[in-house]
Description:
The complex is a heterodimer.
Chain A: H1 2-10, E1 15-16, H2 19-22, E2 39-41, H3 46-58, E3 63-66, E4 83-86, E5 93-97, E6 102-106, H4 111-118, E7 123-124, H5 137-143, H6 150-153, E8 160-166, E9 172-176, H7 190-194, E10 203-210, E11 212-213, E12 217-225, H8 228-240, E13 247-252, H9 253-263, E14 273-281, H10 286-299, E15 304-307, H11 311-322, H12 324-327, E16 334-337, H13 347-361, E17 368-369, E18 379-382, H14 387-406, H15 422-428, H16 431-444, H17 467-471
Parallel strand pairs in A: 2-4, 3-4
Antiparallel strand pairs in A: 1-2, 5-6, 6-10, 7-11, 8-9, 8-10, 12-14, 12-15, 13-14, 13-17, 16-18
Chain B: H1 8-21, E1 36-40, E2 45-49, H2 54-62, E3 66-67, H3 79-85, H4 92-95, E4 102-109, E5 114-118, E6 142-150, E7 152-153, E8 157-164, H5 168-180, E9 187-191, E10 195-202, H6 204-216, E11 221-222, H7 226-233, E12 239-242, H8 248-254, E13 260-263, E14 268-271, H9 284-294
Amino acid sequence: MLSARLREIVGAENVVDGEQELLVYECDAYTLEKNLPTAVVLPRTTEQVAAVAKYCAANKIPIIPRGAGTSLSGSVLAVTGGVMIGLSRMNKILSIDFENRRALVEAGCVNAWVTNAVKPKGLLYAPDPSSQSACTIGGNVAMNSGGPHTLKCGVTTNHVLGFEMVMPDGEIVWLGTTPDGGEDVEGYDLRGAVIGCEGMFGIVTRVLVKLIRAPQGFKTMLGIFESVDDASQAVSDIIAAGIVPAAMEMMDQLITQAVEAAFKFGFPLDAGAVLIVELDGLQAGLDEQAERVMAVCKKNRAREVRLAQSEQERMDLWKSRKRAFGAIGRLSPNFVVQDGVVPRSKLPVIMRFIAECSKKYGLRIPNVFHAGDGNIHPLVLYDERYPDQVKAAIAAGNDILEKCIELGGSATGEHGIGVEKIDFMGKQFTKDDLDAMRALRKVFDPEGNCNPHKMFPGSKRCSDFAPKKQIAA
Amino acid sequence: MSFKPNTVEELQKHVAGLNQSGEKVGAIDLTSLNRVLEHTPEDMTVTVQGGATLAELQAHVRQRGQWLPFDPPSDKLTIAELLNADVSGPRRFGYGTVRDYVIGLTALLADGRVAKSGGKVVKNVAGFDVQKLFIGGQGTLGIIVEVNFKLRPIPDREQFVCKKFGSLTEAKAAIAAVFASPLTPTVFDLCSPATVVLGFDGTNEDMEWQLAQAKALGFSEAGNLNYDTEFWSAKKSVQKFSVLPSRLVETIEQLGKVPFIARAGNGVIYHQGETKSPKPALPVHLLKRVKDVYDPKHIFPEILI
């Protein structure tokens, strides 16, 4: 019945409901919990999305929007089944308005495609998550995605002007700036309220993004430090010196070794930490700023500070950083990555805490992270064949996030709450805070039918979510 | 007479009481809740109560070489008023608006409960972004009692240049030339009758370069922001338009000869004439639902759209 109706709406070729084919959709990049959706539809138009939503609302079937499935928090998991609405076939760049620096794209458009399309005219789309070659603009809206360069430029909410959204009851609305309208929109900032809703307020179908001028020049430096402590202090000192780098990324010794083995960039294997600092802007003035950054690094006992000498060297450096997660395969069969945030000045404290956790639980925890934002990414390594290691990895991750909250930070800077970090919401926010958030959900989805069982404490978990099952994850 | 609470708790009791009986909330004087609660220069963040004025906050963070890079018509506004009205100023082209600097917000809701979203770190996606509703929310959903901002370092130097044109058509060509150039002005304004003003900040070296480039485009006269101050001190009623930057000049031409200032880079026009901006289609039913969910008894004012 459901399948037949879905085939009528989107066409048989755009429905996935065979058990084997559905396996692709059983989880996202967070693999500790899995469950099959009842069916997946891959619509080609907003009207099809709306018709699916309307049908599901009438029949009380949960809907789960999905972009590329690169989420790291289980935010596209079909916890109790339901119809997953995949936007991968709505992936076109619809129009580019160079004069007004905006582009209108379908939600399934891959993040990197936008910048690639406008680069020849000297423009770019600023948010650059490490998964940018796969993740979609619609998914970025849902998660309010960041990336290394958000230190200076801000995150998705600062770069998305407006969008078309299918409400959970099937109504099609436009929120925020329209493609031919001015920036300022009257009334409540509904666009801002939806960005970062983790797909719980509706299905975004078309997005109007802001383009910014690509910087005239870059200075990308690699500081090599004896210890994570020294590198963390350098980060704080650079900010305190009134310099706002485009990005400031740190890799500790373990991850540097793995990256070096994978990409042969020439990182020293005995360095305690390496720090990538990128300055951008007008060519004039960059040299002066770069010298100040190098002086701060040297003051913090940097062994060496290398300056990328060519665009190729710069690209290689970024490649090594953005592919660091992939290089972990060389160290361990499994890892779980956390995404906590601390005030920048607390970086040395949290890094020492992570080192203690590593000792306490007997697990290696390499770190590669957005140091300039205080956004850590500890990768807790484990081997799923040993149940004790699975448990220890989860416990270590939890300890680290609790410490982040205790230090005045957040359990997540980019990856979202999803199903993974539900338990931290009650630690980071009061009941009244959470009620105000629940109220916002009521505005868009009073029935709670869109991407249910996420975000809030007390949500249902997958029926087979238990440490035993995690071993097979 | 307005109600002037000395503590957030007093304000909570007051509002909860009114909500109980369904009475409207009258004027509230927040100026006793004006403390800067925490400024961490090395994190470039600050936490401030809603009743502090922008001027007070700027003075506080300026001691450590930092600022909030927004410049609304008056800095005597309290932080709560500034956010309620979402007002901005000439540096908007380079720095954005207050929305880009709020990283956390605590509001007193109609039922007297205090709710926070965001936090005090610069990157944070935990929970829904409820705070966005309060920026430009005109105080219709609750009272902003505390805000966390991210800050910017005060630039080494700031300088303005301008060029007066004989007609808006000539000014339009100059605006297009600036857009096409590698210049990165923080101020990119057009003001009546037809003067383009550019502002730059940064280190000495990049300032020299930008000023030379601007000069090559004809911007050789020293400028300042007096046109903005004068426009707002005229105490005339002001109409606002927000249009595509490419339609800025034609929109101004249609207003007739009225005093105006415009954010040329953003497509925002303020003028002292009669012409009102056409009303775009808004999802009014959703705006109503927001109001009903957060303020079911409508004790706060209604939003003006």
